[in-house]
Amino acid sequence: MNMNRCSLLAVLLALTACGGGSGSGSKSSSSSVVSSMVSSSAASMASLSSAVSSIPSSAAMSSVSSSAITSSISSASSSSTPVVIELAENGGFEISEAGSTAPANWSLATNGGTAAIQVISAANQPSNVHTGDRALEVAINTIGANPWSIETTHTGLNNGGIPVVGGSIYAYKAWVKGPAGAQANFTVGTPAPAYAERARSNVTLSGEWQEVSIEVTTSPDDTLLRLPVHFSLAANVGATIYVDDFSFTKVESITYEYSPVTVESLRSLSPGNMPIGVAVAAGNSAISPLTNIPRQTVVTQHFSQLTAENIMKPSFLQPTQGQFSFGDADALIDFAEANGLKVHGHTLLWHNQIPTWMQNFSGTKDQWLDVLRTHVSTVASHFAARQSVVSWDVVNEAFEDAGGRYRGSAANTGSSVWYTNIGPEFIEEAFKAAHAAAPNADLYYNDFSTEWNRPKLDAVVAMVEDFQARNIPIDGVGFQMHVWGNANVATIREHLKLVADIRPAIKVKITELDVRLNYVDPPLSANAYTPARADQHKALIKGIVEAYLEVVPPEQRGGITVWGVADVDSWINSLYGRPDWSLFFFNDMSPKPALQGFADALSGN
Ligand code: XIL
């Protein structure tokens, strides 16, 4: 290859791993400012040379101009983390052989369509190479039904994604040429499994070379991105399209100024000392407040009640039939009591997170009832001895996700070993056993989606009223309240009130509050936790807490529990395989505007 003719339009990725990654540490805790700093450092030089020397082709090295290197270094970070600089000339295909159908760092996915890519040379097709020696040719034969069929992607070096700095602006440039009316959709997105889109430009082709220029704002949590170009459009069938001169360069870091957070202690603002709870990890978890001091500080400063996020579920407490394992839970209760915190037990029965032996147990209905009663009685009586354990989720999620039937009662209602082997009366049996074992604890039925799903809520209300009519002990209903950022507060208020209005009155508790803000689909797509997004989060939390205080009389308030401490701790991240900003503390443990929204609602501001 004649490198002298190369235009040096290398994809030059000058990238900084900003302090701690995942958006953590890049925000000052005092003023809630996110900033990624820019300057040069010796560390950047060291990693630059190692990145360059790892490029297999020495010809590629010689093609890197010193001015390009210098400019990339001068925009690198001064953070203590080494700067990562990756070079792949023209996205990899400039250093690939002409005729190659598998250029370095590029992939072709056809998902039902048929297409071919190959590297072409200026020598053979001068007008189809924009600059330099090579361009990428994409010949589209047929398209598939899948909207992502015919996707040509710069997958990053060694297919690992392009390392990027979260919370930054990148300039993505490319050139494209194809028949007038054909179309190429240039996108930027996160790697599998999330494939969240960060930016796109749909280009209608003109027959001439056209420049594509996209400004990309990375999410604070982004570490890797890909550059897929989509051709799955009817107008492209039979078209041959050329792309060239890719570059993806960091332009600047973003400084976020979030609205101020002044709350010093959420719990101290709680009207009537209603419990303000938080779900916590425990056992040997690195984020347990027993050992993780930053989390311990937050937990004891702001909250008055704990829920074990996992370790009081059946799989943890009775891993082997008849052998109960209370060590981790007891340690958590010790911690709670040493710090003046109450504990809400979660959960005596659930269809999830039960031990394998229980899941696979084979027996008659009576034998299953035995299993149920043994577990509920043993666990509830063990903790009844601890003054801090004031309440329990006795049964969790017994109704189907979609509507009002019992989970497991029909096709498409999900499955529950309890329903299958005992029938609907497993619920009342659990409440009776719990009440006998822990007569002083408030006993809750807990479920999700009840804040918006009326058939599901109606089923829960009907169950409570039926229990009351038959003297089955039940003290309250827990709304998990795992909401989306566009949740409707008026509906939430109405649904809380439907439970608060049950007579005789029962308690209403928000048991697992968090908010999903990183949507998969436009138009709700949220690329970054911008100040506007943080304020939307704050307003929603304020609305939910206000609604709760408005419709639940003081004596019926079981309190409000948030489902985790820092965003990075949240189960929402792994639920969707992408980062989110669901909770009340940034990853450096500084409070988010959402905490202020909670505080403002508690104090009536
Ligand atoms: C979740 C935990 O947060 C995760 O760590 C665990 O892997 C799965 O369970 N509803 C509930 C909670 O009642 O117990 C769930 O907690 C979240 C949904």
UniProtKB/TrEMBL annotation:
Source taxon at top rank: Bacteria
May I ask which residue range the UniProt record assigns to the signal sequence?
1-19
Alphabetical UniProt keywords: Carbohydrate metabolism, Glycosidase, Hydrolase, Polysaccharide degradation, Signal, Xylan degradation
Record flagged with keyword Nucleus: no
Active site location: E512
Which EC class is the enzyme in?
Answer: hydrolase
Under Enzyme Commission nomenclature, its number is 3.2.1.8
The cross-references to PROSITE patterns, in alphabetical order and at most eight, read:
GH10_1, GH10_2, PROKAR_LIPOPROTEIN
Please report the stretch or stretches of sequence annotated as the GH10 domain.
284-601
PANTHER family with a match to the protein in the record: BETA-XYLANASE, GLYCOSYL HYDROLASE
Family note = Belongs to the glycosyl hydrolase 10 (cellulase F) family.
Q: What is the protein's name according to its record?
A: Beta-xylanase
- Organism listed in the record: Cellvibrio fibrivorans
